[in-house]
Amino acid sequence: MTLKTVTLKTAQTTLAEGVTELGIGHPSPWLLPLRELESAAAHRFAQGDASFLQYGTELGDGFLLTELAQFLSREYALPVPTGELMISGGISQALDLCCAALSQPGDTILVEDPTYFLSLNIFRDHGLKVVPVPVGDHGMNLDALEALVRQHRPRLVYTIPTHQNPTGTTMPQAQRTRLAELAQQHDFFVLADEVYHLLTFTGTPPHSFAAHVNTGKVLSLGSFSKILAPGSRLGWIHAAPELLSCLIANGMIASGGGFSPLGGALIRSMFELDLLPGYIQGLRDTFRGRAAALGDALDELRSLGIRFQRPSGGYFIWVTLPDGVDSVVLLDRAVANGVRYQPGPKFSPDGGQRGQLRLCFAYYAEDDLRGGVQQLGQALQETLREG
Ligand SMILES: Cc1ncc(COP(=O)(O)O)c(C=O)c1O
User: How crowded is residue 53: how many other Cβ atoms within 10 Å of its Cβ?
Assistant: First the structure.
């Protein structure tokens, strides 16, 4: 028997020493709400009611759902009824649940190209055929989508409509309405992943897909990961009540009850103490500054032939490299210069997007972001010099 050294760790990702990891899509550890959740826990435990330590009701704690409905109605500036919400284990788990309840192996799902790459594994876990739809400056290209819908008769369409991962693009209002109409005409469900909607730091985004839930064909998926803490593993599904009934008719929920009543109880107290809005505003202010710093630093590289759009929210800037430069090939040189990013093909269901790369501004402070871009610029210059 061989004894292996076990490295104990808590967080999923450990950053490599000496490399600026502009690829990582996580918040800075020092931005996480340790103090706020400490107050929330003290508040919850002081109530002397242990019911949140019991198996939870299937849709999630009704008191939490009521607070959440009020919060979303205010943030989205449209009514979100409590009866249309359920608590999920974050968007990742919500996607898994939706696939289990609404699709069969062999069905087709249309996804943006590029898209959130880790969603693709979830869709493939369910035996779905993944078909890419191009993304333009305004999100998913709906003319292309309509043609693909006629060709493939999908069961599901997955979109990240606001501050998309990885492109940062936002789908305009009229396109959102058109997508919801197409879902009704062609009988598919829209899984709207709205994980970055509340992280808008400039202007006001178009209405959340919550506005189209009443069609019965749209599910708006939200998460506490980016507005509170990824470790909460909690989010929500906003959908027509008959769809929610279908989602909770699930073996895992029947056995284990609703998702994480303990974590949900802390978030309930975050709401009751009115701690969440101020915390989110702090994140928006920080990310606005970081996005500007990253954008300013990248402006210096425009003379080398890169292109990008400044985001108005979310976590990312999507960079198009000069003609002929491949983001997969460039990565080795970037790492040698001390910086890493996510190369474009990672986000593409069929391995395209080779001339693109994704940078994240949520993890590092402004100076580190500037330093990382300088290193990226050096790698690019070396590559261009070699022709
Ligand atoms: C577009 C998108 N959807 C979903 C997730 C994961 O969400 P959750 O943490 O709620 O599972 C991420 C995380 O980066 C994301 O970027």
Answer: 11
